[in-house]
Design goal:
The chain is 78% helix and 3% strand. By secondary structure, the protein is mostly helical. A two-stranded antiparallel sheet has the order 1-2. It has a two-stranded antiparallel ribbon with strand order 3-4. α2 (46-65) packs antiparallel against α4, α5 packs across α8 and α7 runs parallel beside α9 (285-324).
Length: 389
Amino acid sequence: MFRRSGSGFRQKWTSLTLKGALYGSWILGVFPFTYDSWTRTLRRSKWLIVYGCVLNAAFILLVVTNDTETEIPLRMEVFHRNALAEQINGIHDIQSLSMVSIMLLRSFWKSDDIERTLNELQDLQHRYFRYYSLEECTRFDRFVLYKALSVVLEIASMLALELGMSPNFSAQFFIGLGSLCLMMSAVLLGASHFHLAVVFVYRYMWIVNRELLKLVNKLANGETVESEKVDFLLKLYHRLLDLSHRLASIYDYQMVMVMASFLIANVLGIYFFIIYSISLNKNMDIQIVVFVQALAINMLDFWLNIEICELAERTGRQTSTILKLFNDIECLDQKLERSITDFALFCSHRRLRFHHCGLFYVNCEMGFRMAITSFLYLLFLIQFDFWNL
């Protein structure tokens, strides 16, 4: 499972990262599947589902019963100074816990669909793609490592934020902080399953494009190309599109909630920082550094989520561009020309895109709009509460 071809340093780190994500997901109860090495398939385990529900319910309960906000004097001072900030913070806490609960429950509820989808990815790997050399597909390794790094940075950022804002450390504080870290690790790993699957779809699409380019070069050199090869690549392309649509439908609510949480956290973080620095006239040199790094890492992770889907979508568009190169080849075989035309018509009618909740497509354009919208909401919030700042 998750085997990588190649023995280079980058490939070894990628393989280690994928295994770490798998084992970490098993430990935190967000991957309720066992792997049958004989049949090379995943099987849903009811025991792992029960384990995941109990474990993560315990994390949520510990976070609720060991609230760390009372251990942070600056935050409590803000709440006494601005009642709206306290109300917004309470709503955000409820939204965060609801997001965690819904994400985990939906993942368990959709476990049958996830099992079928991941098994089909496994089938594609072992039946069609395992013989291809992937040394040149550097973006696959790069985005897997980037995603792992973003998860580590998010946890480190949260630890730095909590420890940097709290001068008093008690047993209750460390219990709440540890539970919060484990709960957020489970959420981030659960969200990373979608992005790792998308990166695999990208890798397979990249192989299809490379094979099409090889066929173009053969025809340009006067060699013969069988139409069955183009039909086979069209079949793979069709399966990859179906897989991408199924992945989007399975993880759409989870990913929307994760992206919204990143943006909401940044909006509220800037709002609270304005109250700290302007309303309370606090001189916080260390807190500024902690606050800025938290905002930067949140935005980095948000944009990485967008860029992974944009990468797969851009690779799908390249397929149509490659098919246009066949127009430069003269005297094509009639059967081969018909196969290429069918492939081009299919690409013109169906595109690789990730549509979440029927609301928006996940790409750089929409990510930019979401970032601008969150900034506008910050302005609205400041204007609404201007006289209390």
